Amino acid sequence: MGSTDSKLNFRKAVIQLTTKTQPVEATDDAFWDQFWADTTTTVQDVFALVPAAEIRAVREESPSNLATLCYKAVEKLVQGAESGCPSEKEKQVVLNCCRILTRILPYIFEDQDWRGFFWSTVPGAGRTDELDDDEGARPLAESLLLAIADLLFCPDFTVHSHKRGPDSVESMQSIDSCEYIWEAGVGFAQSPPLNYIHDLNRTELLRLLLTCFSEAMYLPPSSDNTILNPWVTFFCSTENRHALPLFTSLLNVVCAYDPVGYGIPYNHLLFSDYREQLVEQAVQILIVTLEHDGGIPHPPASPSSIEEQESTGPENLFVNYLSRIHREEDFDFVLKGLARLLTNPLTQTYLPNSTKKIQFHQELLVLFWKLCDFNKKFLFFVLKSSDVLDILVPILYYLNDARADQSRVGLMHIGVFILLLLSGERNFGVRLNKPYSLHVPMDIPVFTGTHADLLIVVFHKIITTGHQRLQPLFDCLLTIIVNVSPYLKSLSMVAANKLLHLLEAFSTTWFLFSAAQNHHLVFFLLEAFNNIIQYQFDGNCNLVYAIIRKRNVFHQLANLPSDPSSIQKALQRKKKSPDVISRTSSQETVSMEGSHPAVPAEPGTLKASLVAMPGIDKLTEKSQVSEDGTMVSVPKTDSPNTVHPDHSAVTGTSDTESNSGRDSEVSAFLRGICSLLSQVLSWKCKLPLQTIMRLLQVLVPQVEKICIDKGLTDESEILKFLQHGTLVGLLPVPHPILIRKYQANAGTAMWFRTYMWGVVYLRNVDPPIWYDTDVRLFEIQRM
């Protein structure tokens, strides 16, 4: 009964706030205390009892009342941070203020006129002893962020108390938060006792912190990386004395988390796992704070530091700490933790749904990306042993599982980006030669082979059975294959046939002529074949045999028609068969046991829009592998498979010309054919076919001869012959190995920002923090 009364009183206070036409004085504590004095309102209650329309109404009609509510709530948090919340009542007031601010802040951010409100000073708010200047008061945002940081290390509220006896006192001002790190791991050896109340309180504070950082959602996409999120900039600066212990706490809580626990079946149905909610919020805070690595904050964090910031840029301490992790045991802890969590949704048990499946794998992939990007020592540690395969297999699983679901196109991109980054390092290609024996259930053909075979088979499945919006990723997928190809010792017959099937599909004339960049895909595949033939011929009899069997594809490429009538005929064929790749001609075999087919998104599924991804030439830079194994950067020039954007393929007349006369349509079509003709001639002569043609010239007569002489019909005998064959001295001089390494740029930075915030928006549904607010960084679309 009391619970119902308290909700009623809270609701009455909200109605009073929205209906009062006169400003309520800040000193009227009896009125304002109604919002946080109650002990039974949950965060879900606050979201239900404070409707969006009423927050907007107060914002428009009684702005001073909304300002006072925010100021008073922050004031209560500051008081709680100073006192250390010794009583249960004070703890409850802090939590209620957190919930109210979490509810209101998105509506402050969506209105441009209000966005600066938290960066203004309110008389008497957050007064500090250190500031003796004329202002004497911090901006409200700074007071709020510092109070949250203090409260995250508040004994008996969010951390275990270290009190020696009943009379000893832990002063919030003198507390050394490095002794109160939440979990053992990086830089901290003790694992504090689990306390679910502390976990719940930390989660509420982190949810508010994430809401503070979410101002970024309300600004349109911009490739200007100098404009920083002022909330993140201040929180990750030296102004926050808890920056190091908080960063360490967040990282350790995530990497130490084991969702399976003691392995008791169905334990997640019997007990609430409060640690999981905390881990989700922690990983989201980490990826959001690590998005900024310095620049010029907007607006400046504090006037006194503008000069210094313009000269050096404010240092993001979270990025700094991440980049300075260097101990092998710390790397091992982080890598094993991430691998355990990423592998969790793949675990199969004989009892259906008996183990807990986590849902925050997208945030984990972004965190892994940040670790590799900001800490090169970590990247080299990952590639030093076959532990990298513990990251590769779950990524391939997610890619394969999401390929038919348009709401998960962002997940496809982040997975491919990570593999592109890893493939730029020689060790990744070498590690792929390890036999694949795990057999995670995926709906791909059964094969016996290595992790390289698994990668090729999954990529083939994505290209041939994924949805249309994945086409921009084809260049990336094939670039990864090219990067690892010089190191692949022995491809299986299944993988070899998949590569040949891709070449066959991409080299049809209608596909080659139908878009200006399509020939790139053929160039990539030919380059991969050349790398394997030149550098790994001895162990790759399966690929050599597949090339011999499909030799007509290479002959057709060598004799590609490039006269106007042939091009016109090919384009007309395209209109009759618009499918990119024939799904049937790839001899599909039985899928793995226990696997489920990839399915499209359920109708009504929400997804966040993404900005366009830069082309492969912007995503990568070329490096040549020298004889001693070092990489030498190759200066940017037009590669043989570069086409200038002004040459576009002819796919019919454009919409803008449809009202013109018939003559102009015909002349435009002829101009297009001529442009396409010159384009085809420019790349056709650069097709890298010499090595393969020489191989066919030498081996085809030999294979035909032994088949006739010995009456062979069994391919295993032919493979045995090819296994012991050699092309030493018969092939052209080996070309230098060319690796396309991922390079960051403004386009990818913008893509990551929209993707990351889209994930955060969609994953926070209980309560729905940003739902139905006017976000501008991306659009929320219903499938």
Automatic annotation (TrEMBL):
UniProt biased composition (Polar residues): 582-592, 650-659
GO terms under cellular component: Golgi medial cisterna; Golgi trans cisterna; membrane
Alphabetized InterPro entries for the sequence: Hid-1/Ecm30 (IPR026705)
Domain of life: Eukaryota
Transmembrane stretches, start-end: none
Pfam family membership, one: Hid1
Positions of region (Disordered): 571-603, 622-662
Protein name according to UniProt: HID1 domain containing
Organism name: Oreochromis niloticus
Gene name tied to this protein: HID1
